[in-house]
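User: Can you recover a sequence for this backbone? Please restate the input before giving your answer.

Assistant: Of course. Working from this structure:
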């Protein structure tokens, strides 16, 4: 028996909402514009929302914690051919737009997780649905602390479709180049984190807007020029390079430039992982007048700017502390055969 939600007093509606999970709240909010208005900003706010944009598929992952493993609900919308558009038809209201959909069950997300709620629709313009979906989520939870966007394809994708509230973007498609990257960074100059997970073609140069993004993660496999570019010109806070090769000289030069010439004034963390078979790192701390790591000063998550799981990847007893020549800032360097971590100490921990 359906409940007349909108006819209940506000106190009763709040009580009902407090007992619903994020997926149930989302489903309820799609009933009508009035229902959405009655729910807006009246439920607990998720810690993080991730939009996953794939060819013909949109997913919204909702998290109760910042931990990427602790996903609470997954909502997906699939663009399908008319021949697959079967089942009971429903009309939903998303972001002020009315869309004809049908429910789709037993669907797994791209991370092989069970969908909390899955819909299929016919629409040649996926951008219309994406913009409506973002507007809807923003209405439900206007004070989201973290919104992340993952792009798994680029063909026909328009950077303007990404909401201005997005601060974190991950590019997961191959054959990305500078032109694609710069077009997105130009239209979203307030990004705080950018991750390039697919293979990048070409180089960037000192003028690239990526060099000024506060936090950058990049897969640099088989691209030594890109590795050297980032190590030489990065002006942000945190840089992580994966699948690097033969970059000992560039990493050593960065640390020396920071130590003796006070370059990289904003840099807080550098992490470099080598690909299998790459020329291993040797003693990068040689000739830096480093002193053995003070084991009582464990790095904080703020200093590393990453998950604390990174702590288990290094033998911290082999770390060295170094001091910047003119400012007295302290940094810690840890080097093993396939990885290097360099992080500047928080002034309060020095």
């Amino acid at each position: 028996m359906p409940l007349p939600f909108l006819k209940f007093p506000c106190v009763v509606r709040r009580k009902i909402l407090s007992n619903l999970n994020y997926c149930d709240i989302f489903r309820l909010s799609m009933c009508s514009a009035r229902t959405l208005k009655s729910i807006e900003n009246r439920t607990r706010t998720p810690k993080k929302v991730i939009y996953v944009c794939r060819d013909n598929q949109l997913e919204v992952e909702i998290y109760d914690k910042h931990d990427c493993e602790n996903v609470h609900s997954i909502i997906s919308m699939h663009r399908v051919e008319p021949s697959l558009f079967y089942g009971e038809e429903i009309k939903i209201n998303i972001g002020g737009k009315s869309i004809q959909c049908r429910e789709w069950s037993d669907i797994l997300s791209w991370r092989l997780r069970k969908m909390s709620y899955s819909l299929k629709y016919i629409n040649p313009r996926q951008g219309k649905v994406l913009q409506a979906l973002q507007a809807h989520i923003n209405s439900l939870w206007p004070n989201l602390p973290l919104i992340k966007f993952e792009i798994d394809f680029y063909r026909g994708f328009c950077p303007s479709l990404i909401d201005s509230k997005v601060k974190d973007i991950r590019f997961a498609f191959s054959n990305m180049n500078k032109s694609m990257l710069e077009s997105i960074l130009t239209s979203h100059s307030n990004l705080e984190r950018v991750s390039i997970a697919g293979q990048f073609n070409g180089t960037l140069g000192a003028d690239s807007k990526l060099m000024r993004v506060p936090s950058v993660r990049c897969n640099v496999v088989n691209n030594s020029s890109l590795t050297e570019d980032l190590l030489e010109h990065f002006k942000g806070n945190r840089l992580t390079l994966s699948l690097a090769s033969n970059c000992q000289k560039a990493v050593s030069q960065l640390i020396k430039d920071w130590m003796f010439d006070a370059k990289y004034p904003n840099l807080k963390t550098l992490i470099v992982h080598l690909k299998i078979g790459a020329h291993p790192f040797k003693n990068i701390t040689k000739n830096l007048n480093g002193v053995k790591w003070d084991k009582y000063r464990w790095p904080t998550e703020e200093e590393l700017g990453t998950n604390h799981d990174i702590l288990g990847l290094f033998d911290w007893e082999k770390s060295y502390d170094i001091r910047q020549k003119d400012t007295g800032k302290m940094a810690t360097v840890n080097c093993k055969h396939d990885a290097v971590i360099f992080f500047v100490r928080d002034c309060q921990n020095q």
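That completes the design. DSSP finds eight helices and 16 strands in the chain.
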